[in-house]
Amino acid sequence: MMALRARNARLPPEVDRILYVRNLPFNISSEEMYDIFGKYGAIRQIRLGSSKDTRGTAYIVYEDIYDAKNAVDHLSGFNVANRYLIVLYYSKTKQTKKVSTKDKEEELRRMQERHGVDGEQHARQKA
């Protein structure tokens, strides 16, 4: 009965089936990741960072949101090869999308058209 009540409890809005893990040992294998995180529920996918910028990070997708919450609760601060894991819920809003200069220029042009200005007016006023 207690387990059923816990499963029906409302989850905080930040809880997600996808976890973002930082501070992993660079040489950790997928098998080791499944051993550590699989104890908390069925895993759909693990993606380990492999580039210079993403080494030591991973995304873990659980089948069930409650299993993901359980993993965060138990594995945040867990010691793996003398490194303490940082386990966070994935947040689409926190993941920064790199915007190219071309995209910024296009957005600026659209705004100038919408407001009936061109970039030259301001330059002429200063001169």
CATH homologous superfamily title of the largest domain: RRM (RNA recognition motif) domain
Question: What is the number of beta strands?
Answer: 6
What sort of overall outline do the alpha carbons produce when their principal axes are compared?
elongated
Structural Rg:
22 Å
The biggest beta sheet is recorded as: 4 strands, antiparallel
Q: Helices and strands, in N-to-C order?
A: HEHEEHEEEHH
Structural class: alpha+beta
The share of residues in helices is 25-40%
Strand content: 15-25%
Q: What is the fold-level CATH name, i.e. the topology of the largest domain?
A: Alpha-Beta Plaits
Count up the domains.
Answer: 2
Question: How many helix segments?
Answer: 5
> What number is the mean pLDDT?
82
Instruction: Tell me the span between the first and last alpha carbons.
Output: 77 Å
So what's the CATH class of the largest domain? Alpha Beta
Q: Give the uncertain stretches in residue-range form.
A: 1-5
Strand order of the largest sheet: 2-3-1-6
3D structure, described in words:
This protein has 127 residues and is of the alpha+beta class. The protein has 2 domains: 78 residues, Alpha-Beta Plaits (2-Layer Sandwich), CATH 3.30.70; 31 residues, no CATH class. The chain contains 5 helices and 6 strands, in the order αβαββαβββαα. A 4-stranded antiparallel beta sheet has the order 2-3-1-6, with helices on one face. Strands 4-5 form a two-stranded antiparallel sheet. The protein starts with a helix and ends with a helix. The N terminus is likely disordered.
